[in-house]
Design a protein that fits this description.
The chain is α+β, with helices and mostly antiparallel strands and 89 residues long. 22% of the residues lie in helices and 49% in strands. 12% of the residues are buried.
Length: 89
């Protein structure tokens, strides 16, 4: 089963601090199937992790898996770079 994530960010005024991300997880069983939404939740910045950067927690206060955190951090960096190029931050 293939899985992908989509992220949408709500950045706080202090950069990554105060940021909330909506994580959507999609899955499909094979190449011919469409992506189906299987999970959606919000995660908040909760500190720094030396392994992959920012650390994120789900609404229950549990840390996210390391790979998910790394994926969020990569997407956040791309979003920040895009905002800087467009003069929004």
């Amino acid at each position: 089963m293939a899985i992908k994530h989509e992220f949408s960010f709500e950045f706080g005024r202090g950069g990554i601090r105060g940021t909330v991300v909506t994580v959507k997880t999609f899955a499909r069983k094979n190449f011919w199937r469409r992506w189906k939404l299987v999970d959606e939740y919000r995660a908040a910045y909760s500190g720094f992790n030396p392994f992959c950067g920012a650390e994120w927690t789900d609404p229950q206060g549990k840390s996210l898996p390391i790979q998910t955190e790394c994926d969020i951090n990569d997407a956040a960096q791309k979003e920040i770079d895009l905002r800087r190029r467009n003069g929004k931050g």
